[in-house]
Write a structure and sequence with these properties.
It catalyses: 1,2-dihydroxy-5-(methylsulfanyl)pent-1-en-3-one + O2 = 4-methylsulfanyl-2-oxobutanoate + formate + 2 H(+). Residues 1-21 are annotated as: Disordered. Helix content is 21%, strand content 33%. It is α+β, with helices and mostly antiparallel strands. The strands form two sheets. Strands 1, 2, 3, 4, 6, 7, 8, 9 and 10 form a nine-stranded antiparallel β-sheet that branches. The two termini are 28 Å apart.
């Protein structure tokens, strides 16, 4: 089961867990109120998994690929790791399904605090368009993930500040409605 927590303010290695002391856990319900959707799937059978097939049909995830993030598999590895960790948003939802390995997605809460979401094999996450987030490997330095998209993939990340984009404004409206 996925685990999430509020991050400490330490500037040490981004791949460290960065838990506050005492730990401040974040529930799936708290993530849902931020628009973050979590699912647990059978990563060993992703090619034939009827649950994944149904999710793709229901959500109209018509395009997918698989990416491996490891120093021996990803060109310009160190540069890419730094780019993934820059705070940004997308104009479309970001859907990632961990097939092997592990890593962290960090998202901002409604008060602009970082929440770290630990992702491992079998975890699928959907980050809503307009949410500020970032990704890093954990100390295992390896992840193989499926990327899913509605229609043609759009890879553009808009680094913070990006508050004037309609996707960000729509996301902020969603947060305000969730607060009531």
């Amino acid at each position: 089961m996925v685990e999430a927590w509020y991050m400490d303010e330490s500037q040490e290695d981004q791949r460290a867990p960065h838990r506050q002391r005492p730990n401040r856990a974040v529930s799936l319900e708290q993530l849902r109120r931020l628009g973050v959707v979590y699912r647990r799937l059978d990563a060993d059978n992703y090619e034939t998994d009827p649950c994944l097939k149904e999710i793709r049909r229901a959500e109209n995830y018509s395009w997918m690929d698989i990416v491996t993030i490891h120093k021996e598999k990803l060109p310009n590895y160190e540069e890419k790791i730094k780019i993934f960790y820059e705070e940004h948003l997308h104009l479309d939802d970001e859907i990632r399904y961990i097939l092997e390995g592990s890593g962290y997605f960090d998202v901002r809460d409604k008060d602009d605090k970082w929440i770290r979401i630990s992702m491992e094999k079998g975890d699928m996450i959907t980050l809503p368009a307009g949410i500020y987030h970032r990704f890093t490997l954990d100390e295992n330095n390896y992840v193989k993930a499926m990327r899913l998209f509605v229609g043609e993939p759009v890879w553009t990340a808009y680094n913070r500040p990006a508050d004037d984009f309609p996707a960000r404004k729509q996301y902020m409206k969603f947060l305000a409605e969730e607060a009531h």
